[in-house]
Amino acid sequence: MVFLIAVVAIVGVALILFKARQRSRARAAAREKYGKPCPSCGKYVHPAAAICKHCYARLPTSKA
Hints:
The chain is mainly alpha-helical. The chain has one domain (1-64). It contains one helix and two strands, in the order αββ. It has one helix at residues 2-34, and strands at 36-37, 44-45. It has a two-stranded antiparallel ribbon with strand order 1-2. A hairpin with a 6-residue loop joins β1 and β2.
């Protein structure tokens, strides 16, 4: 019985780590495709945008 609980716990932790890695990759892909996230609302906007088109917050300028 203890062995079964240990196996279920290990599988559960592995699934949690796998899903976290998938979310991280999805965020990176969205960042690359859609630009930078707005610091106010979190939606992605064009990298050259000065104002968020979703919440109209002023975006910080990037020094490139």
